[in-house]
Amino acid sequence: MRLLIGSAAGVMLVATGCGGATEGIPVAAPSTTSVMPTAPANGAWDPCTIPDAAIEGAGLAVETKSSNLVGDLPISEDWMTCIWTNPLPTPWYHLGIFSSTESLDYLRGSGRFGQFEPIEGLDGLRFRRTTQYDEVNCGVAFEHPNGVFYLVLDGFLATQPLGDPCVEVERLARSLRPSMPSSN
After folding, report:
1. Integer Cα distance of 156 and 24 in angstroms
2. What pTM did the predictor assign?
3. Which PROSITE patterns match (predicted)?
4. Where would I find the H helices in the chain?
5. What digits encode the pLDDT tens for the residues 59-70?
6. CB contact set of 128 (below 8 Å; sequence gap of 6+)
């Protein structure tokens, strides 16, 4: 229970400032079909549309997919979210993907994230949270014509990380990039 509460707190820290929860928005059903790799014209791209095969291929546990760690309501009305954990026997993190019609400049200017750096061979930027609470985290942000999306790896509280979170989130970003909107 402590592990779940700590993980939920980490995701909520990521989403803080993104807007309030909205009742009545449906949660995306698991997808086993191909993904539309562009954002819809009328809103943010839904990261829960990434095919299960791509999620499994990246080394995440398909059955852990959720639009929120606690309850059925979305984390924010302004951001689409989807969250997975790495599989048993040794889960040490969850990966959240957040998508909005905001821009990359919005993320940079929010004050919540910093240390934006280009990643060799990838069209995204690595970043960290500006406020650190001895937590294990790292993220990768991508801009596309209809907005921005980012991946954030958060370690579970009281669980020793089994690797460098930035190396792991970059690996996940490279693996999942073909199933996400292009930057063109």
Report:
1. 29
2. 0.75
3. PROKAR_LIPOPROTEIN
4. 2-15, 52-57, 104-109, 165-176
5. 999 999 998 766
6. 113, 114, 115, 137, 138, 139
